[in-house]
Amino acid sequence: MAIGNETTESTTPEPEAPKRYAVLIGNGCVEAADGSRLFDVPAIDKDLAAMAAVLGDRESADFALTSLLEPPLIQARREIARVARMAGADDTVLIYYSGCSLRLGGQLYLPMRDADPEYIEATCLDAEFVLSVLRRSRSRRIVILLDGCHSGAFFADNRGVPNGFFALSSCAADEMSYGDADGGFFTRAMIEGLTGARADADGDGIVTTDELYRHVLPACRAGRERVPPTTPQMWSWNLPEPIALTHVRRRIFVSYRRSDGAIADALVAALEHQGFGVWLDREDIGGGSRWRDEIARAIEGCDAMVFLMSATALESDEVYKELAMARRLARPIIPLQIGDVRLIGWHKAELGPIQAIRHDPADRQGHWLSALVDAVRAACSAARRQAPTR
Questions:
Q1: Is 173 part of a structural domain of the chain?
Q2: Mean local confidence (pLDDT), 5-11
C-alpha cells in the first residue's frame, strides 16, 4: 500500500511446518506401600533410550520428545493430555509405552509406579482415558505403539477412536510379550525397522506406519529361541494415508553377484547398524521389466553405490548395467575388491582410478569393514555437498 510518497509491501507470514510430538512412557515396576517392588520388568530404560534416539533424531524423525521412566500416574496422564491439546490438525502425536501391563475384565491397564494393585481400574493408565483425550485433539495424525503383555486388548469393547489414528501393539489380547536384559523384543523389532530403514518396503526413503507393521509382524511371528511367537496387532481409523515415522538419511545401493552373498550380508548389517538405508536385491527375481525398473529407481535414489568387485561380478552384464547407470548419474562408487581381479576395457577406464578397499577374509577384527563404512560415509557427505538439492 502507498503512504504519501513511500511504498511498503504487505507480506503474509510463511505457514508453520507441521510439528511432531512424542510421549514415551516406560514402567516396569509397581511399588507396594512399604516401597518394595511388586513388579520388576527389566531393561525398560533401554527401550525408552532406544526409541528416544530414533524418534528424537533431528534429521530422520524430528519428534519433540517427552520421555518418562517410571512416572506416577498423574504425570503420565498430564503429558498425554498436554501434547494432545497442543497439536494442530497437521501435527503428529505419537504415544509409546513399554513395560508391565495387566488385563482385568477383558480391559487393558498400564500401571505406573504408584499403581494400587487393589484398585487397578482407578490407579492405572487405561485405554478409555487415552482415547478420550485424543478424540478431543485437533491432530489427525495420531500413533500409539504398545509393548506389553495383552496389549492387543487396548481396543476391547470397540471403544471410539479419533480420526486419523493408527495403533500397533506387540501381541494379541491373550498373548504375553517378551524381552531380555537388552529390552523388549517388539521394541527391538521396531527400532530395527526404523533405524536401518529395513521397513522401507517401497524404497522411497520414508518408513510409514503401515510399513512398520509389515516389518514387525513376521519378525514377531517367527519367535526366538525358547520364546514363543507373538502376533502384533494393528488398528487404523479414517487415515487417508499412512503416517510418516522416519526418513532414511542416506541410501546405499549394493551391486553384487549371488556368489558373494555372504559378504554382502555382512556389509548390509554393518551399514544398517550405522544408520544407512541399504538397497540390495535379495530375491534374485531377475529378468522382468518391473525388476529392472525397481533397480533403476533404487540407483536414482541412492547417495552412493558399493560394488562387490569380484571376478564373477566383472563378468556380469547386469552388474555392468548397474555400474554404468551409477556413473551416468554421477553417483559415487566404492569398490570392495574380493580376491584377485583384472580390470579391462570399460571397467579399467571407469573403476581403475578409484581406490578400492580390499576384502580380507582373515581379518577377524573387521578392519576392511570399518574402512568401507568410513569410505561410504565420506562419499555420501561429498555427494550431498555437491548436490544439496537432490
A1: yes
A2: 49
